[in-house]
Design brief:
CATH class: Alpha Beta
Order of helices and strands: HEEEHEHEEEEHH
Strand order of the largest sheet: 3-2-1-4-5-8-7-6
InterPro entries: Endonuclease-V
CATH superfamily: archaeoglobus fulgidus dsm 4304 superfamily
CATH topology: archaeoglobus fulgidus dsm 4304 fold
Number of strands: 8
Largest sheet: 8 strands, mixed
Number of helices: 5
GO cellular component, one term: cytoplasm
Distance between the termini: 35 Å
Shape: globular
Number of domains: 1
Protein name: Endonuclease V
Helix content: 25-40%
EC number: 3.1.21.7
GO molecular function: deoxyribonuclease V activity; magnesium ion binding; RNA endonuclease activity producing 5'-phosphomonoesters, hydrolytic mechanism; single-stranded RNA binding
Structural class: alpha+beta
Length: about 240
DNA sequence: GCGACAG
DNA sequence: ATCTTGTCGC
């Protein structure tokens, strides 16, 4: 869908790939990742989430746009789709990004920052979902994982704001960040066009009361609601 | 060979 | 991710 302010990929590539082709593409696109701050003034922040139907291969993707200051929901879009790629650790973006890009196509506000549910450069080829989305949209992104994919770390302190570094051999690939006192930390990494300290600053700011940033929380609520509705409609159609 | 493995 | 079971808190 073409619109005045639609956010659309600046890079196009096929999604109909096998496992080894996808890995080749990741290595190629990983060269484009920028690990420095290139943010304009951050007025709008996007959050993204995907949920799956239990039986079939159906999925629902949601994009939310929050006001960066008030953290209130400004705009959202939900799309239903079919998953064409299996879940393979390290190739997560090939499963989830096609519906996410579809969901973005009907969003009128161009976000200044996107917070992703998944890793950025904390990835075997330094190209997790957040980096992939960032490079395709040429937009600053933050990778925000609930569990780690790769790396070693010491447990951070138990207070909100405590952190430790996530290391892959000698590479600092991310930060293990405690967003709430005594709550399991989250794994923050550079997606694209942002530095690690700035990424952490935003994640902490976006998670004032909960473990995860407001962006992911709100997107999560939306997809679950839509999925429930979808299953109900499917059930009603059977009668 | 064995364990680890974003969602 | 989703499912399942149990527990706590509003």
């Amino acid at each position: 869908m073409k619109g005045v302010n639609c956010i659309e990929p600046v890079i196009q590539h096929s999604w109909d790939l096998n496992e080894s082709q996808a890995i080749v593409l990741q290595k190629e696109l990983a060269l484009k990742v920028i690990k420095e701050d290139q943010l304009k003034q951050v007025n709008y922040i996007a959050g993204v989430d995907v949920a799956y139907s239990k039986n079939s291969d159906r999925l629902v993707a949601a994009v939310v746009i929050l006001d960066a200051t008030t953290q209130k929901l400004i705009e959202s879009n939900v799309v239903e789709d079919i998953s064409n790629f299996p879940y393979i650790p390290g190739l997560f973006s090939f499963r989830e990004l096609p519906p996410v890009i579809k969901a973005f196509s009907k969003i009128s506000i161009t976000p200044d920052l996107i917070v992703c549910d998944g890793q950025g450069v904390a990835h075997p080829r330094r190209f997790g979902l957040a980096s992939h989305l960032g490079v395709l949209f040429n937009t600053p992104t933050i990778g925000c994982g609930k569990t780690k994919l790769l790396g070693d770390y010491e447990d951070p302190g138990i207070k909100r704001g405590d952190y430790s570094t996530l290391l892959d051999s000698n590479d600092e690939i991310g930060i293990v960040l405690r967003t709430q006192n005594n709550v399991k930390p989250i794994y923050v990494s550079i997606g694209h066009r942002i530095s690690l300290p700035t990424a952490c600053k935003w994640v902490l700011q976006l998670a004032p009361r909960f473990r995860l940033p407001e962006t992911t929380r709100q997107a999560d609520q939306l997809v679950k609601k839509s999925l429930t509705l979808l299953e109900k409609i499917k059930k009603d159609n059977k009668r």
